[in-house]
Task: inverse folding
């Protein structure tokens, strides 16, 4: 048996290729939308990808089932409760797919979603009775379980899903302790709150260390798995719906999106409300960028923040370093944002003769900010981290508006004071600063290194709430 895990760090997403060396039949489980790696590995091992299995309708990315069906001829396989526009093979609880010495047996494990399944993987040449592994999708993670409150499945409440999840975990808990656990996500995913950085475990280890697998009354379990969950980006519902639909594959959308646009074309589209996203690193963007563009750097959680900040139904234009345009467009495609109209030809070099179109955002160090905060005329510090992060320690007097809410809450930011924006390390504050700049804010500084740099400089933080006095008497500065 051949079993390989593929881990996509920017989306904290794990997918799998399982093949039988004897029959050369293979299956891919929960693939990402760009599928070349699966095709390349299958070809190098002589496998034919006969099946593509979705453990559920994912909300945080667009899966590659349509792509593998179109390019490899793979049959799409899902659980019995799945409802989709495309044809698929529906598997009942306990049913199996046989691939020579490999058996894939399906367990209905709803809870994160109603149609959720897990896949038991048997290496029949080694042990016909004990499953070698279980691919748990978003039902069971390493250290956590799939949250039942995403509301990606319309008409099903968190309480109803929690009941399903409670019963599904009891089913997984009964598997042999030696069975390897391979989930669909790891640390950084918003599909749970306590995911481990580890990407594989065993049932025995999870029974010992995973809080959600401990025996407990349902009411206690429900309260645990529904509390303190991270805020889900708005695009999650969009992707959950798109994963049910018959749609264009990534290859087709890339062909239509990879258009080199002149500066005049970009400016014309910008006037028509196109979203211009500059994917360079923050220091380069803040040094010089096209007026009105938004910075979401490729080097961070680019797709997730694009899904949170950008719209999926308004044209997007990309500005990138030469050679990075295709990656920027493809990673938007991973979350189903196929509305890219093209990219600026020659990137920022296209603006060399148009200085009136170039803006800068100034940066400030932590010690320099401390000096300004000690002066009579203090700047307002805008902290765009989550409320939970802010409550754990923040700069005294700061205003907390989490980045996902910034565009809707800009009216809460006083206009009579200069503004210093920060997050944990600088990635989110660069996005926030670009949004504020686009909205016309001029007296704007970005804190280099964020709260990490502030703490490294041994400057004070507090856990107290911001006060009107600290914000210059403005009640808009309270949280």
Result:
């Amino acid at each position: 048996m051949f079993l390989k895990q593929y881990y996509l760090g920017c989306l904290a997403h794990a997918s799998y290729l399982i093949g039988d060396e004897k029959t050369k039949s293979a299956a891919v489980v929960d693939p990402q939308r760009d599928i070349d790696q699966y095709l390349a590995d299958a070809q190098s091992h002589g496998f034919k990808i006969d099946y593509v299995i979705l453990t559920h309708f994912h909300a945080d990315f667009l899966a590659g089932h349509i792509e593998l069906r179109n390019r490899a001829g793979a049959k799409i396989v899902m659980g019995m409760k799945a409802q989709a526009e495309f044809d698929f093979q529906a598997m009942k609880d306990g049913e199996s797919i046989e691939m020579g010495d490999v058996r894939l047996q399906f367990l209905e494990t709803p809870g994160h979603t109603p149609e959720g399944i897990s896949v038991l993987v048997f290496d029949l040449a080694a042990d016909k009775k004990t499953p070698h592994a279980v691919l748990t999708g978003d039902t069971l993670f390493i250290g956590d379980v799939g949250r039942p409150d995403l509301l990606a499945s319309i008409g099903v409440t968190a309480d109803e899903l929690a009941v399903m999840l409670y019963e599904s975990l009891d089913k997984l808990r009964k598997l042999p302790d030696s069975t390897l656990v391979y989930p669909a996500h790891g640390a950084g995913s918003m599909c749970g709150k306590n995911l481990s950085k580890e990407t594989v475990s065993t049932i025995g280890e999870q029974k010992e260390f995973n809080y959600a697998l401990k025996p407990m009354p349902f009411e206690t379990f429900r309260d645990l798995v529904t509390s303190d969950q991270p805020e889900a980006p708005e695009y999650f519902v969009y992707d959950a719906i798109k994963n049910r639909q018959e749609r264009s594959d990534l290859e087709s959308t890339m062909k239509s999106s990879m258009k080199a646009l002149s500066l005049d074309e970009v400016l014309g589209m910008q006037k028509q409300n196109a979203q211009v996203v500059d994917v360079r690193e923050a220091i380069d963007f803040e040094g010089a960028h096209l007026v009105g563009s938004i910075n979401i750097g490729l080097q961070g959680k680019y797709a997730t923040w694009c899904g949170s900040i950008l719209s999926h139904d308004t044209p997007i234009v990309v500005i990138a370093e030469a050679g990075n345009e295709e990656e920027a467009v493809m990673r938007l495609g991973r979350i189903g944002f196929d509305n890219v109209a093209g990219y600026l030809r020659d990137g920022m070099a296209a603006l060399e003769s148009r200085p009136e179109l170039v803006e800068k955002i100034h940066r400030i160090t932590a010690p320099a900010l401390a000096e300004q905060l000690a002066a009579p005329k203090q700047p307002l510090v805008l902290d765009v981290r989550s409320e939970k992060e802010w409550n754990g320690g923040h700069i005294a007097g700061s205003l907390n508006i989490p980045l996902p809410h910034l565009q809707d809450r800009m009216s809460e930011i006083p206009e009579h004071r200069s503004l210093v924006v920060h997050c944990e390390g600088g990635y989110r504050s660069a996005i926030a600063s670009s949004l504020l700049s686009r909205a016309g804010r001029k007296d704007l500084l970005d804190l280099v290194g964020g709260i990490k740099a502030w703490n490294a400089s041994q400057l004070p933080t507090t856990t107290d709430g911001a006060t009107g006095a600290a914000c210059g008497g403005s009640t808009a500065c309270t949280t």
